[in-house]
Amino acid sequence: MKHTFKESYGVLQRHAQTLREQREPNIDDLLQIVEESVSAFKICQARIDAVEKALEKELGEPQPVVASEAPAPAPRRAAKAAAPAPAAPVPSSLPPPAVDEDDIPF
Fold it and tell me: Is 104 within 8 Å of 9 (Cβ atoms)?
């Protein structure tokens, strides 16, 4: 199994594409796909966790605001006429937007 984030993410993308394109599940290949995907996911997750820890260390963790330190609320303004409630969304017969397979979600 590959050990970089980019390579592991590529494995996940390829396997997802393979599964999406199948008209019928190929059970013979499924076990290998699942095992490789789980391994790749663990590598990606470990790299993400390492980056998050490094950011927290460098930037410091956000401190909770104590009630006595909280800023005073802004003065209230005169109430305006209530806006009409937004209309309920109309169900669309369009397919969901395409996912950019080359886009890394962060």
Answer: yes
CB 47, CB 5: distance < 8 Å? yes
Q: What is the pLDDT of residue 93?
A: 54
Which of 58, 65, 8, 59 is closest to 37 using CA atoms? 8
Give me 18's structure tokens: 């393979």
**What is the mean pLDDT of the segment spanning 34-55?**
96
Encoded tokens for 41: 């996911």
**pLDDT greater at residue 1 or residue 74:** 74
- Inter-residue contact 55 to 62 (CB < 8 Å): no
Pull the structure tokens for residue 21.
């394109």
Of the candidates 93, 95, 5, 6, the residue with the CA atom closest to the CA atom of residue 49: 5
